[in-house]
Design goal:
The protein is mainly alpha-helical. It has helices at about 5, 10-25, 30-40, 50-60, 75-95. The longest helix is centred in the C-terminal third of the chain and has 21 residues, at about 75-95. The termini are far apart.
Amino acid sequence: MRVIELVSDPYYKQVLYSFKMKNYESKKEVDAAVALYEKAKAEHLDLDELSLKRLAVLLRGAGKPVPFSEPPETLEYYKERLKTQTLQDNVEQKED
């Protein structure tokens, strides 16, 4: 059994899906990335904008259509936004 199948909390499942999408994008595994997107949809999980952007870039690079509204900003923008949000979350946790 895979770890992702053991996780039932939607938040943590979404985090795992984000890491998987990053991996698929880095390895240019288009079919695996599309399958992950379809699985997330079937489970009623919303992928974050960075994951959607990664998938869109991957699909366009493979000459395939993007089946959703592509987030408008660059990959770098979403990466930086995630980094900033993570830092803010860490600061807030330390203050509590």
